[in-house]
Protein backbone atom coordinates (compact mmCIF):
# COMPACT_ATOMS: atom_id res chain seq x y z
CA UNK A 1 0.00 0.00 0.00
CA UNK A 2 1.23 3.47 -0.86
CA UNK A 3 1.37 5.74 2.18
CA UNK A 4 1.91 9.43 2.84
CA UNK A 5 3.85 8.59 6.01
CA UNK A 6 7.58 9.26 5.77
CA UNK A 7 9.16 5.94 6.73
CA UNK A 8 12.75 7.21 6.53
CA UNK A 9 12.38 9.99 9.14
CA UNK A 10 14.62 9.76 12.22
CA UNK A 11 13.27 9.46 15.76
CA UNK A 12 14.92 9.56 19.16
CA UNK A 13 14.56 6.42 21.27
CA UNK A 14 13.73 6.91 24.94
CA UNK A 15 14.04 4.68 27.99
CA UNK A 16 11.26 4.28 30.57
CA UNK A 17 12.51 7.39 32.42
CA UNK A 18 12.31 9.66 29.38
CA UNK A 19 16.05 9.73 28.67
CA UNK A 20 17.20 9.69 25.06
CA UNK A 21 19.14 6.45 24.61
CA UNK A 22 19.39 6.03 20.85
CA UNK A 23 17.93 6.81 17.46
CA UNK A 24 16.05 4.94 14.76
CA UNK A 25 14.18 5.39 11.54
CA UNK A 26 10.41 5.13 11.46
CA UNK A 27 10.59 2.00 9.29
CA UNK A 28 12.51 0.16 12.03
CA UNK A 29 10.78 -1.67 14.83
CA UNK A 30 11.13 -0.01 18.23
CA UNK A 31 13.27 -2.32 20.42
CA UNK A 32 11.78 -3.79 23.59
CA UNK A 33 12.09 -1.40 26.53
CA UNK A 34 12.47 1.61 24.23
CA UNK A 35 9.93 4.21 23.20
CA UNK A 36 9.43 6.91 20.58
CA UNK A 37 7.69 10.23 21.21
CA UNK A 38 4.27 10.96 19.70
CA UNK A 39 2.57 14.35 20.06
CA UNK A 40 -1.09 15.31 19.64
CA UNK A 41 -3.13 18.47 20.12
CA UNK A 42 -6.65 19.70 20.34
CA UNK A 43 -7.18 23.22 19.03
CA UNK A 44 -10.13 25.25 20.29
CA UNK A 45 -11.46 28.31 18.51
CA UNK A 46 -12.47 31.52 20.30
CA UNK A 47 -16.03 30.17 20.77
CA UNK A 48 -14.93 26.88 22.38
CA UNK A 49 -15.45 24.61 19.36
CA UNK A 50 -12.74 22.03 18.75
CA UNK A 51 -11.05 21.48 15.41
CA UNK A 52 -10.85 17.84 14.33
CA UNK A 53 -9.26 16.36 11.24
CA UNK A 54 -10.23 13.35 9.24
CA UNK A 55 -7.07 11.39 8.43
CA UNK A 56 -6.13 10.76 4.82
CA UNK A 57 -7.04 7.35 3.43
CA UNK A 58 -3.35 6.79 2.70
CA UNK A 59 -2.20 6.99 6.36
CA UNK A 60 -0.59 3.87 7.85
CA UNK A 61 -2.61 4.05 11.09
CA UNK A 62 -6.37 4.67 11.27
CA UNK A 63 -6.85 5.81 7.65
CA UNK A 64 -10.02 7.84 7.17
CA UNK A 65 -10.72 8.15 10.91
CA UNK A 66 -11.62 11.42 12.59
CA UNK A 67 -8.82 12.38 14.94
CA UNK A 68 -7.42 15.14 17.10
CA UNK A 69 -6.62 18.51 15.53
CA UNK A 70 -3.02 17.60 14.67
CA UNK A 71 -0.35 15.15 15.70
CA UNK A 72 2.49 12.88 14.76
CA UNK A 73 5.88 11.60 15.78
CA UNK A 74 8.58 13.87 17.14
CA UNK A 75 11.64 13.99 14.91
CA UNK A 76 15.14 13.42 16.22
CA UNK A 77 16.19 16.29 18.48
CA UNK A 78 12.69 17.77 18.87
CA UNK A 79 11.05 18.46 22.22
CA UNK A 80 7.38 17.56 22.51
CA UNK A 81 6.35 21.23 22.28
CA UNK A 82 8.50 21.91 19.21
CA UNK A 83 7.18 18.74 17.57
CA UNK A 84 3.52 19.65 18.08
CA UNK A 85 4.10 23.20 16.86
CA UNK A 86 5.68 21.75 13.70
CA UNK A 87 2.84 19.25 13.22
CA UNK A 88 0.20 21.98 13.59
CA UNK A 89 2.00 24.21 11.08
CA UNK A 90 2.52 21.34 8.61
CA UNK A 91 -0.92 19.73 8.85
CA UNK A 92 -3.07 22.84 9.32
CA UNK A 93 -0.99 25.88 8.40
CA UNK A 94 -1.64 27.44 11.82
CA UNK A 95 1.24 29.21 13.56
CA UNK A 96 -0.35 31.67 16.01
CA UNK A 97 -2.03 29.74 18.79
CA UNK A 98 -2.25 30.54 22.49
CA UNK A 99 -0.95 27.75 24.72
CA UNK A 100 -3.66 26.81 27.20
CA UNK A 101 -0.97 25.22 29.36
CA UNK A 102 -2.82 21.90 29.40
CA UNK A 103 -0.56 18.95 28.88
CA UNK A 104 -0.92 15.24 29.55
CA UNK A 105 1.35 12.29 28.90
CA UNK A 106 1.19 8.51 29.02
CA UNK A 107 3.24 5.55 27.84
CA UNK A 108 2.00 2.97 25.35
CA UNK A 109 3.63 -0.30 24.33
CA UNK A 110 6.51 1.32 22.43
CA UNK A 111 5.67 5.02 22.45
CA UNK A 112 5.21 7.95 24.82
CA UNK A 113 2.28 10.16 23.91
CA UNK A 114 2.24 13.85 24.86
CA UNK A 115 -1.05 15.72 24.51
CA UNK A 116 -1.61 19.48 24.35
CA UNK A 117 -4.55 21.86 24.09
CA UNK A 118 -4.31 25.22 22.34
CA UNK A 119 -6.66 28.08 21.70
CA UNK A 120 -6.63 30.31 18.66
CA UNK A 121 -8.57 33.16 17.13
CA UNK A 122 -8.96 31.69 13.66
CA UNK A 123 -11.62 31.09 11.06
CA UNK A 124 -12.01 27.61 9.62
CA UNK A 125 -11.51 29.10 6.16
CA UNK A 126 -8.00 30.23 7.23
CA UNK A 127 -6.92 26.67 8.08
CA UNK A 128 -4.92 25.14 5.23
CA UNK A 129 -4.95 21.33 5.63
CA UNK A 130 -2.04 19.37 4.21
CA UNK A 131 -3.77 17.39 1.46
CA UNK A 132 -1.44 14.38 1.73
CA UNK A 133 -2.19 13.87 5.45
CA UNK A 134 -5.63 15.37 6.06
CA UNK A 135 -8.81 14.42 4.18
CA UNK A 136 -10.92 17.17 5.74
CA UNK A 137 -11.29 19.37 8.81
CA UNK A 138 -14.30 20.55 10.78
CA UNK A 139 -15.20 22.42 13.95
CA UNK A 140 -17.30 20.46 16.44
CA UNK A 141 -19.00 21.33 19.68
CA UNK A 142 -17.06 19.67 22.51
CA UNK A 143 -19.84 17.14 23.13
CA UNK A 144 -20.13 16.21 19.46
CA UNK A 145 -16.33 15.94 19.15
CA UNK A 146 -16.10 13.53 22.09
CA UNK A 147 -18.89 11.44 20.58
CA UNK A 148 -17.33 11.46 17.09
CA UNK A 149 -13.93 10.36 18.43
CA UNK A 150 -15.49 7.68 20.62
CA UNK A 151 -17.38 6.27 17.61
CA UNK A 152 -14.09 5.93 15.73
CA UNK A 153 -12.94 3.34 18.24
CA UNK A 154 -9.76 5.25 19.07
CA UNK A 155 -10.83 5.51 22.68
CA UNK A 156 -7.72 7.21 24.03
CA UNK A 157 -8.26 10.24 21.77
CA UNK A 158 -11.80 10.64 23.09
CA UNK A 159 -10.52 10.29 26.68
CA UNK A 160 -7.80 12.89 26.11
CA UNK A 161 -10.33 15.36 24.70
CA UNK A 162 -12.52 14.82 27.77
CA UNK A 163 -9.50 15.53 30.01
CA UNK A 164 -8.77 18.76 28.11
CA UNK A 165 -12.43 19.79 28.38
CA UNK A 166 -12.44 19.07 32.13
CA UNK A 167 -9.36 21.26 32.50
CA UNK A 168 -11.03 24.05 30.50
CA UNK A 169 -14.16 23.85 32.66
CA UNK A 170 -12.03 24.03 35.80
CA UNK A 171 -10.25 27.12 34.46
CA UNK A 172 -13.57 28.85 33.78
CA UNK A 173 -14.75 28.22 37.36
CA UNK A 174 -11.62 29.81 38.86
UniProtKB/TrEMBL annotation:
<dbReference type="InterPro" id="IPR020084">
    <property type="entry name" value="NUDIX_hydrolase_CS"/>
</dbReference>
<keyword id="KW-0378">Hydrolase</keyword>
<feature type="domain" description="Nudix hydrolase">
    <location>
        <begin position="34"/>
        <end position="163"/>
    </location>
</feature>
<dbReference type="Pfam" id="PF00293">
    <property type="entry name" value="NUDIX"/>
</dbReference>
<dbReference type="InterPro" id="IPR015797">
    <property type="entry name" value="NUDIX_hydrolase-like_dom_sf"/>
</dbReference>
<protein>
    <submittedName>
        <fullName>NUDIX domain-containing protein</fullName>
    </submittedName>
</protein>
<dbReference type="GO" id="GO:0016787">
    <property type="term" value="F:hydrolase activity"/>
</dbReference>
<dbReference type="InterPro" id="IPR000086">
    <property type="entry name" value="NUDIX_hydrolase_dom"/>
</dbReference>
Amino acid sequence: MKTTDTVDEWWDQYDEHGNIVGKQQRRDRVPAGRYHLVVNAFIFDQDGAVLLQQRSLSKLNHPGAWDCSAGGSALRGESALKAIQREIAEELGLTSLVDLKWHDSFRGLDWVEDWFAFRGAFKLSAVKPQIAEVAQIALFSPERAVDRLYQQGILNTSKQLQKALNWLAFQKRR
